[in-house]
Amino acid sequence: MRSSLQQPARLVPLAFVAAITVGTVLLLLPIARTGPGGTDLITALFTATSAVCVTGLIIVDTSSYWTPFGQAVILALIQVGGFGIMTGSTLLGVLISRRLGLRTRIIAQAETRTLDLGDVTAVLRIILIATLLVELAVWGALAARLHWGYAEAWPIAIWHGLFHSISAFNNAGFSTYADSLMRFSDDWLVLGSIMVAVIIGGIGFPVLVDLRRTFRRPGRWSLHTKITLLGTAALIGVGTITVLGYESAAGGLFDPLTISERLLDALFHSVMTRTAGFNSIDIGALQTETLMLTNILMFIGGGSAGTAGGIKVSTALVLILAVWAQIRGEADTTAFGRRVSADILRQALTLIVLAMIAISLGTLHLLSVTTFSLEQVLFETISAFATVGLSTGITADLPPSAELTLVTLMFLGRVGTITVATGLALKRSQRPYRFPEERPIVG
Amino acid sequence: MRSSLQQPARLVPLAFVAAITVGTVLLLLPIARTGPGGTDLITALFTATSAVCVTGLIIVDTSSYWTPFGQAVILALIQVGGFGIMTGSTLLGVLISRRLGLRTRIIAQAETRTLDLGDVTAVLRIILIATLLVELAVWGALAARLHWGYAEAWPIAIWHGLFHSISAFNNAGFSTYADSLMRFSDDWLVLGSIMVAVIIGGIGFPVLVDLRRTFRRPGRWSLHTKITLLGTAALIGVGTITVLGYESAAGGLFDPLTISERLLDALFHSVMTRTAGFNSIDIGALQTETLMLTNILMFIGGGSAGTAGGIKVSTALVLILAVWAQIRGEADTTAFGRRVSADILRQALTLIVLAMIAISLGTLHLLSVTTFSLEQVLFETISAFATVGLSTGITADLPPSAELTLVTLMFLGRVGTITVATGLALKRSQRPYRFPEERPIVG
Lengths: 443, 443
Ligand SMILES: [K+]
Ligand SMILES: [K+]
Prior knowledge:
2 copies of one chain form a homodimer. Chain A is mainly α and 443 residues long. Chain A has 15 helices and 3 strands.
């Protein structure tokens, strides 16, 4: 039974490797690049990985380095990558539920124990519809705003609108503007549309389905939906307020801005850190304190089984709930009148520790092959692993070995986390006996 | 019953506050300072806290700023602080065992359920004897070496020997030499004696008692002893090898040194990071990679219920064992044929998360009131919280508010951790019912 279940868990990494390979080959073609001849292998590989893993880190400017063909390839890779991670992780989640004999909340009508073709089709159809609906709406809003508000000709506005709508819903953070979205830093309409797409795409499929089914009855939401929504709201709020505080101080980036601009840019930055990666402000000019806070938000990331990266909001919240329960002296970790299964805590912990190890090793490597500061390097590796794509501006200046490290981190962060999470949930080895208990001293 | 148990847990912080207060007052006296008049309040408070919490961070040079009287006060505070934390945490540990109805491994002969005066006396006596034995032996070795090897007159050699022997056993890291132990960077005898004192003092009383009783029968060691010894050996080994690697590279600090010096200084640095805090090399000149590794070693610290700080070796190992068990798919966290109690994991996790929060807040504050880099500031706050005392050299240049933050971190790291650990172990609130279980998605 085990082998048949591990098959799909292996399928996701293989599919991503295939997509990255195809993308690399396409970007190597001379027609993808504006300059003479084809690009080099590292640039093509890095860009394809960044697109498929919906990260958005770039070593060459998307708008000037790549031709419309190259940009279309990147856009296609983003759509494939985003759709792939959303369907892949959702189906693996269904699989875990089946294997553990749990009632599958995701597709409640199907109660059989095997993942049949009907389920797969249903999941694909719902995700496809949600993707198209959101992307079309945001595309329309952006194109209209760019045409009427910024005097872009219709074909240009439509192309930019399409690119950013897809890039936003898939939390990719790629932009056809050289300065990302900094030119829109006071435009509530543009940044607002982007934020809506980012949040819906990044909140995760299980939450979307749950909301669609029981939108008016919050009492019937699953625990996962509740803690994801609560965590998302809390993180956006805390992020906004802290960025406002640190950057509004004398010498901060918001010093010359109006109140409305400060609010918009703080909110936008807070939402984008988890994990869309567009920026309306210059990341390299932020206070070190803001960068540290951004690091934490990036590490946590968005919702499970969506287009967002990071360790996921629910993973972080399970850990926080456990600590809170321990402080209150309660034996069970509880939230919203539900008890969080004890093995879920250990899964969350394991995922977080593995993520920290990956980021630490990446940081050590970047430190040893560059002269950049710890601030810059740590920000870059967390951004890569959590597939955020924000940068203090050092990406293009990294040596090839550091770029390969980032490629590895992006892949591990995107595909590794859900593969490991699936593996952790499924793997059970039974001992025929239990060892006697002992209590080592803690602290 | 609860209140009578919380009394001793409150006694430890109160005793430390009292010792720091007395120390501050004594250091404020004009006879404590070589310069004219008494010192200022911040300097006295900082130095007294650093001494009582056996941290070793200094904002004025111990050898030139303080008179022999001032140095004697510091030495007395170190001895009181080290003895206090060792007896305090040991007695709190005994208390937890009693409360939870566990067989007390520490003082096996007493099997009654209340902590009677006999136990306290026994613990105090054993700790006193161990302290005196080690300190006397190291004192003798150091004084002899300083007299015959470095031509120090007997009174000077005896004073320096006494100061460093007490400072080492109590993991304090204070030195009467302005450059800490950098002048002995090639002296296996001096650094070796210091290391022995540091390791014995920092391994923790429970391990010492266990070893004394069953030294030749490792099979009868407690799980705590086994994982503390294993963890200590592993951390010393990993630390030594990594420091050797990073600093032996071209441009590293060890570049001009002989093999013997490299080995000695790497080993010494690895041992001192957890958490004695003497240095035989210039910390400010270390590679950023070495500083990051040092951060991790400092955070982990030494053994429980000894003079060492940090979250403790056993705490870190419980977490690592849990992650390892999860990766193997085992339901129980096991080691050496024993099962680690499940609530111990949540206690360890809580302690680590609280430590990270304290360090993060301290780091954010120091970043916002100084212009030092994240490397420097993070190193300083971890060093303070884990009561290590190593510094990249910024301590003396911090503004008063930052110094007060370090004072707070030293106190929290020293007294807060064991108080919280005791609280976590003792607090049990019982619900009359359990909530239904749910499994939020992780990753
Ligand atoms: K992204
Ligand atoms: K120390």
